[in-house]
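Entry 12.
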Amino acid sequence: MHQFTFKKEERLCSKIVLDKLFTDGKSVFAYPFKFVFIPVDDATETPIQIVFSVPKRNFKRAVHRNQIKRRMREAFRLNKLAFYENIADTKIALMVIYTEKEILNFKLIQSGLIKGFRKISSSLKK
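Predicted 3D structure (tokens):
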């Protein structure tokens, strides 16, 4: 049985990789998210290193930004195993940016994340 966890190794913390994401990253849009990703040649065990972002421009209060990020992390945690199977042996760095101006419920966030994962895996196979 697989554990649905979100470990420290799966979090993207490297400043170098984050800068590379902004300069060389490919982007995919799936409402309400923009996904920016690049393949990486890292020595980590996890196939994905991910960072979640909610713009301060759209949500002034940190409470609301943190609430959205918690929902995004939970949706990723519950659906990451299917995404890992779709990307096969590719390792990627991924940034998920919330683009909606209002706080959406968990079901909409989860469905948007799943749609984005499908788009990313299909673009990686091309």
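Annotation: Helices lie at 15-24, 62-87, 106-125. The chain has three helices and four strands.
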